[in-house]
C-alpha cells in the first residue's frame, strides 16, 4: 500500500428525485492498494456510495453534492462521455448477483473482452489470452474454453469468479465489490472470498468492499467505515473497529456478531414429552424425480427448539413443508402429540391446524398488506376459538403487548411497520392460535443483525413463558448456537448429524458439519488465513 | 383534487372529464333533446343549424339527438359486457389459480383454444349462427372477452397464491371463498381496475365495429357504430355526418385510456434508461 | 433445439385441430339450428325435416364433424346456402386479396413500429417519447373506420390522390393493385402500428431495467452500444412475440377496413355471409382466418426460439 490517493469522495450527497436523502455528507479516502470495508444494515446507503464512486446513480436517484476524485480527476466536473472512459477501465464493479449481471445473450469471453477492447487497453487477442490467464488464476474449470460458455451454463460460484475476472480485465485502480459473496452458500463463499482477496492483492488494486457481514469484511479490509441511514457513524483501522469500536452503534454490531460466534450453548431439557415425532419420512415434489427429503427421523420435545440447518437445496425447507402438509409426504409418519397427521393439509382437522403454526422467512410477504394488524392477528382468534367482537379485540391487544408492540398498532397496516415489527406480528399471529409447535422457516434471515437478535430474544422469552416448541429452519450457524437445544444437519435431503447442539458443535464432527462450521467467517482478521492453512495441511 | 390519495396530472383530468360527460350523455341523453330518436325533422344530411346543432342524418333525423340516444345504447352494451366478462373471468381465473390441478388445466386449455382465434372472427361465426340481438351480442362478447380477464386474473392469482400470507390462510384451514375474497382479491384490485378500463375500451370499440359492419345493434335503435354505417355514403360527398359518431367513439376511448394510463403509471418505476451517468 | 421447434410445430397442428372443433361446435352443435335459421320461422316441420336430411343434420355430431373435416382437407368447403356456389372457388381470389392487403400493411407497419418503439424506449421520458406516447394512445383509441374516413377526407376528397373505393378485379397489374390498396393499407398500418409500437417500447424498457444492462453501463459502454449489443439481442424474442400478437389486430382490422373501402377480401365476404346467415360460408371464412392466425403465431414462436441464446445453445 502506498500513500498515493486513488479515490476520494468528499461531502458526497445522493438524493432521490423526490428529494429523500440516501447518502449524506460521506467522505471516503482510498490509497493505492487499500481496501475499505463499508459496513451497515439495509438502507445504510452502502451500495449507493459504491455506485456513486463511479459517478453513477440508479434511475430515480441523483448525485446531489460533493466531489468524486479518481486519480486526480474530479468526475462530476467531466462530461458524460469523459466519465464513461473511466468506468470499467480505472474503476470497475462486482455486483451481488452474478447470474443477473451477466448478459444471457453473450458468451463470457465476449463480455470479458468488451471493456478492454472498447477502452483501447488491449486488442481482442491480447484480451482473450489475458482472460484465459485470469480464469486459470481464479481456478475456473477448463480455463481455455471457459469463456466460450454462456452465463446460464455455469454455476453461481463460477459466475461470481468470472465477474471478478471481468472487473479485473482492464487492471483498474479501484474496484467496487458490492456484497460479492452474499448470494453464495457458506461453503462456496469462503473459496470465492479467498480468491478475490488474492486477486486484489496481486494486482495492488484498491477496493471498496460493501457488505453487511463484519466477519467477511474482517478478512479483507484494511479499514472499515460503519454507516447508518446514509451517514458515517465511525471509520477507522479494521482492527480498531472490530476490537474497540468507539461509537455505541458500532459496538452493538460487533457485540451481536461476537455473541453469534462465542455465546454459551443451551442444554436440552431432560425427559420432556415429545410434541412432534417424524419417522422415516420421504417426500418430493415430482413423482418421477428423486425425493427431496429422504428417511428423516427426529423428535422435538415440549419447550425445546430443534434447529434444522443446511445449505440451500439441502431439503430443510421441504421438511418444514412436509410437517405443515403443504408438501404431502410419500411415506413415513409424522405425529403431533402422539396423533398421526394426514400427509395432505386439506384432510387435517381444525384442531391439528391450530396446534401447528408457522412463521415465515419474509415478513414482507407473510402479511396481507390490505389488512390491519387487528384483522391479521384477530382472524385466528375468531377462526379457531369462535370468539367475536370485544373478546377478539382484547386478545389482539394482549398478543401485541406480548410480542413487544404497542396495543394501538392494531389499527395499522403492515406497510407502516419496519421489518422487525412485521416479524413480531407474524409471531403474534402464530401465538393467537395457542399452538404446541411453531415452525420457524428462517425467521431472521431477512432481517438486519441487530433486529434479528431482538427477534431471537423474543422467541426465547415466549418459549420460557408459554412452553412452546420450535422447529427452527436456518442456514446460519450463529443463529443455531444462540437458540437451539438440539440440532440436525441436513445435506442433500438427508440428516447427516443430529443431537444436542453442544454435541454437534464439539468434536468428533461429521466431516460435512466440520466443513460447514469451519466455513463460517469469524471476526478474527487472521481467520481466513488460518482456515486456508488448515485446509492445505489436510 | 386527489383521487385514491394521488393527484391526477392534466391528461388524467381530461380523461376523467370525458368519462363523466359520456356517462351523463348515456344516462340523461333523452331528456336533453326536444326531438325523439326516430323523428324526422328535415332533409337528409342537412348542414348544422340553430335547430339541428350537428345537422341531420340520412333520413333527416336530428344528429345530436341520435348521438345522445346512441350513447346509452353503445356505452350500456359495452359496460354490461365488461361487467359480465369480469364476473366470469375473475371468478374462474382466481379459482384456477387457487385450486390448481384439473380445474386449472381444463380452463386454461379451453381459453388457449378460444384465444387462438381472433375474437372478432369467433364473434362473427357465433352471430352468423344465432343472428344478432342485444342479449346475444352481450353474451357472445362477454364470454369471448372473459378469456382475457381469465388469463390476467389467473396470473395475478398465481403470483399471490404463492405469497406467504395466502399460504398462512390455507394452513389455517380457511375456505376457498375466504382465501379468494379476503386475501387475493383486495391485493389484485389495482391491476384489475386498470384492466377493467382497457377491457371496456376494447368492448366499446368491438360493439362499435360490429354495428358498423351491420351485424351489431340493429335499426331502428341508434348506436354510434351503426350511425357511422348509415351515414357512410356522405363521406364521398365530403360531408361530415359519419364523422360525428366516429369522433364520439374515439373521444370516449381516449378518455378512458388517459385515466388507465395514469392509474398504471402510479405504481410504475423509472427504468434503467433513466440512470444518471 | 430441433426438438423444441418440432414440438412447437406439432402444437400448432394440434391447435389448428382444436380450433376446427371449436368452430364446428359453434356452428353445428350449439342450440341454434341452421335449418330454421335459413328457412325462417314460418317453415313447416316437414320442410325443416327434409332440409335437415339434405344438410346431413340427422347424423350424430362427431360423424358430421369428421365428414366436414375430411371435406376441408380435400379442398371441399361445401356450397353456399344462398347461391349454391362452391365456397372454395369464391374464397380463393378473396383470400389472395386479403393476404395482399395484410402483407402490404405489415411491410409498412412492422419496421416503423419496431424502430420507433425502440427509439421511444431508449429516450424514455424525453419529449419525443412523450409525443409518441400521446400519438399512439390516440391511435389505439380511434376505431379503424374513423381512421379510414379521415384518410378518405384528406386523400380522396381534398387531394384527390387515391380512390375511396378499393375495387380490385382479375387482370389488374401489380402496380394498379398497390395503388388501389394504398388507403386501406395505410388505415390498417395506423391502427396496428400504435399497438405494436407501445408493446415494443415496453419490452425494451423491461430489458433496460435489468442488472446486466446496468453492468454494461458500469463497464463504460456507450448508450448506443448498450442498446444494440446488450439490450436488443435479449429484446428480440419479446419483440417477435409482440409482432405476432399484433397480427391479431391486423386480421381483425382487415375485416373492418375491407368494409370501409369495399375491398373484395375474405373479411367483406364473411361479414356479408353473417348478415345473410349463410353458415357454411361463415364457417369456411372463419377457418381460413384462424388457420392464418395460428400459422403466424406458430412461426413467430419458432422464430423466438431461434433467437433465444439459452434455447439455441441447447442440443
Give structural notes.
The complex is a heterotrimer of chains A (538), B (277) and C (315). With 538 residues, chain A is α/β, with parallel strands linked by helices. In chain A, the strands form four sheets. A six-stranded mixed sheet of chain A has the order 6-7-8-3-9-10, with helices on both faces. A six-stranded mixed sheet of chain A has the order 16-17-18-13-19-20, with helices on both faces. Chain A is globular. Helices cover 79% and strands 0% of the residues of chain C. Chain C is globular and about 85 Å long.
Task: Give the helices and strands of chain C as they follow along the chain.
Answer: HHHHHHHHHHHHHH
Report low-confidence residues of chain A grouped into runs of 5 or more. Answer: none
The major β-sheet of chain C equals:
none
Using only C-alpha atoms, the radius of gyration of chain A works out to: 25 Å
Oligomer: heterotrimer
Could you give the distance between the termini of chain A?
A: 32 Å
Task: Give the strand order of the largest sheet of chain A, numbering strands 1, 2, ... along the chain.
Answer: 6-7-8-3-9-10
Helix content of chain A: 25-40%
Report strand % of chain A.
15-25%
- SS content category of chain C: mainly alpha
Overall pLDDT score of chain C: 81
Question: Tags for this entry?
Answer:
heterotrimer; A: 538 residues; alpha/beta; 6-stranded mixed beta sheet; 20 strands; globular; C: 315 residues; mainly alpha; 14 helices
Question: Summary?
Answer:
Chain A is an alpha/beta fold. Chain A is built from 22 helices and 20 strands. Helices cover 40% and strands 24% of the residues of chain A.
Ordered list of secondary-structure elements with their pairings:
The complex is a heterotrimer of chains A (538), B (277) and C (315).
Chain A (H helix, E strand, L loop, with lengths): L4 E12 L4 E11 L3 E5 L6 H7 L8 E10 L2 E2 L5 H7 L4 E4 L3 H4 L6 H11 L5 H14 L5 H4 L9 H12 L6 E5 L7 H18 L2 E6 L2 H7 L2 E6 L2 E7 H6 L4 H15 L11 E10 L9 E9 L3 E5 L6 H9 L6 E6 L2 E2 L9 H6 E4 L3 H4 L6 H13 L3 H14 L16 H14 L4 E5 L7 H18 L2 E6 L2 H7 L2 E6 L2 E7 H4 L6 H9 L7 H11 L1
Parallel strand pairs in A: 3-8, 3-9, 6-7, 7-8, 13-18, 13-19, 16-17, 17-18
Antiparallel strand pairs in A: 1-2, 1-4, 4-5, 9-10, 11-12, 11-14, 14-15, 19-20
Helix pairs in contact in A: 4-5, 4-7, 7-8, 11-19, 15-16, 15-17, 16-17, 17-18
Chain B lengths: L9 H19 L34 H37 L1 H15 L3 H12 L3 H28 L2 H9 L3 H37 L11 H7 L12 H25 L10
Helix pairs in contact in B: 1-2, 1-9, 2-3, 2-5, 2-7, 3-5, 4-5, 5-7, 7-8, 7-9, 8-9
Chain C lengths: L1 H28 L4 H6 L5 H11 L5 H13 L13 H36 L4 H15 L2 H15 L15 H7 L1 H27 L2 H8 L4 H39 L4 H11 L2 H29 L1 H4 L3
Helix pairs in contact in C: 1-13, 5-6, 5-9, 5-11, 5-13, 6-9, 7-9, 7-11, 9-11, 10-11, 11-12, 11-13, 12-13
